[in-house]
Amino acid sequence: MSTGTFPRIVATDLDGTLLSSAGTVTARTRQALQAARAAGAEIVFVTARAPRGVVEIARQAGVTGTAICSNGALVYDVATDEITASSPLAPETARKVIEALTQALPGVGLAVETGRNVLAEAAYTRRVEHDLASYLEVQSVFDGGRPIVKLLALSPAHTADEMYAAVAEAIGDLAEVTYSGVEGLLEISAAGVTKAVTLDRLCAERGVAAGDVVAFGDMPNDLAVLLYAGAGYAMGNAHPRVLSAAGHRTLTNDEDGVAVVLENLLAGR
User: Fold this and answer.
1) Is it the case that residue 18 has pLDDT exceeding 80?
2) Per its UniProt record, what InterPro entries does this chain match (predicted)?
3) Could you say which of 8, 78, 234, 241 is the most buried, measured as most Cβ atoms within 10 Å of its Cβ?
4) Are 105 and 124 in contact (CB under 8 A)?
């Protein structure tokens, strides 16, 4: 980004990044986002969350417009509550991925994010308290033929880093494997589907160059976005892989790290 110019897109992760550890948007962060919008920037949430997990955050932040959800598999219009683009994992590919998962991680629990619900097999015991109404218990994640927006793999006996190391080579280029902060949980999308790829498509539609994007994130699923953007900021609380690879660093999410950067950019215009 050129000195004295303000980014055209502010692309930010939510959990561990924009949100405090209490899961809220602070007054300082909301004010910084509103000032960025007034300066001409579009605020784009780029998150592992499904659309239903974005609505309340958008309200707190005073943000409307487009959100990139489910690690890039969905594009969501916040104002109209419409999913405008979807890139699901093909069922036949999902079966191959599951075979690799169960061989590498015996006893792994499986669930599927459909975009509107979570289909959870018995061994998938994780539940997000504010999202309980969206869980459907199924014998198999393939029940009902619903879209596999994101395949979720849970192994409470392992860290996400351990799981990734165990399955990444076996899955190879069948699908995108990543994780976003929940221990023992991998998130798997269709091959070529990442936050960065979907953000690039959105930028192209708007005629925005990557150099005119500032991005924020904290976990491995954010890294491609941070490397794509003209200025990519790792949060002070970020995963070691992100801290070592990102070009810039800010304060932690609980220190309003996103707001601090935006305030400084606004002051330097």
Assistant:
1) yes
2) Cof (IPR000150), HAD-like_sf (IPR036412), HAD-SF_hydro_IIB (IPR006379), HAD_sf (IPR023214)
3) 234
4) no
Q: What confidence score (pLDDT) does residue 181 get?
A: 80
Domain of 240, CATH number, reads 3.40.50.1000
Rg of the chain in Å (alpha carbons): 18
Q: Count up the domains in the chain and report the number.
A: 2
CB 233 within 8 A of CB 226: yes
Same domain for 20 and 76? yes
The mean of the pLDDT values for the chain is 95
3-state DSSP call for residue 22?
coil
User: How many C-beta neighbours within 10 Å does residue 58 have?
Assistant: 19
Residues linked to residue 43 through DSSP beta bridges, in sequence order: 10
List C-alpha distances in Å: 189 to 86, 88, 113, 172: 11, 7, 10, 12
Residue 19 Ramachandran class (φ > 0 left, ψ -120 to 50 alpha, else beta) = beta
Convert the pLDDT of each residue in 96-116 to its tens digit.
999 999 999 999 999 999 999
Q: Note whether 233 and 103 are same-domain residues.
A: no
β-bridge partners, 109: 154
Q: Stretch 28-45: mean pLDDT, rounded?
A: 97
